[in-house]
Amino acid sequence: MKIWNNWQLVGVACVTLGLAPFFPEPHIWGKLQWIAGGGVGMQPIDWFDTLFHGLPWLLLIRLLILKGLSLMKATVQKQ
Questions:
Q1: What is the pTM of this model?
Q2: Which of 2, 39, 42, 75 could bridge across to 46 with cysteines, CB 3.0–4.6 Å?
Q3: Structural domain contains residue 6
């Protein structure tokens, strides 16, 4: 099993790296709001930081999609 397919590791990464720092709001949330507002004034380091804190969430979304596709395939094969 590959490390990026490990549900526990991805979950811990989302809760820690994906949300850190936690106060006053999760860092990734602030970055996403900044981008939604047009990303005016964002430097390359800000974009890298967004990717860095967003990667665990992208891995989680990927795992959820793969699990959903696997369940759909199993359902179709049973019919």
A1: 0.82
A2: 42
A3: no
